[in-house]
What does this fold into?
Amino acid sequence: MGSLRRKLQNREVSIGTWIQIGHPTVAEILGELDFDWIAADCEHTDITIREFGSIVRGLHGRGPVPLVRVGENDTLAIRQALDLGAQGVIVPLVNSAREAERAVAAAKFPPAGVRGFAYTRSNEYGASFDDYAARANDEICVVAMVESRASVSAIDEILAVDGIDGVFIGPYDLSGSYGVPGQVRHDDVVAAQCRVVEACERAGKSAGLHVVSPSRGAVNAALDAGFTFIAVGMDTVFLRSAAVEGLEQVRGMESGFAASEARVGTGAQAGSARHAARLDS
It folds into this structure.
């Protein structure tokens, strides 16, 4: 069994992040950090399947486990992502046990599922075909996203599906489902999240949450609430935060620049005057 899947099933803490920028350089940079996993978001971005392949190549040989949030609960989308080398899928809008079963079937080779066999990047284009085919079903993670009132109502049934290793809450979609879009700390949304965590504790599977603006306090609060599969920030957030911080370091210094330039200009003018005076004499 893969190390990340084992952590999910044992409810051990794993820390990851999201990639929204479809470029391998981002994967290479983040892949050098001590994340347990990195997931490419192919649902809410314009990352194509070809770009996802480049992201996986950027993570190759680095520590974090490559995951993908597919655009939809679709057999072909899941199959293609796994064939490119994803070691787990995060599947959006899973609202019932039947939909959870569909996601698992897409991710597993027969007889456990319907994933097709082929020479692909995941098995080194056939060089490790037998080895990969023998271990993939045990190593591939399948995480269902809980993003609606219907999903919360069916949470016990979803978690009971063999092959579902955990769930990941989509707080903004969940808030919209409860009629309070964007109010992720609304009492109804928080109560729904607690219900999901409690169900995960009963099932012995992991509950996941995205801490969009990471801080020690926010992550500790998520851990205290029972979440163990935690995403912190994402590439776009990190980029903006660093840009804002860098700009804040220099904004307000314009007046100092101007004063310095004025002093240089005054000194140059004085020097020119002295030079002209010597020539006149």
The longest helix spans residues 254-280. The first strand starts at residue 14 and ends at 19. The two ends are 92 Å apart (CA to CA).
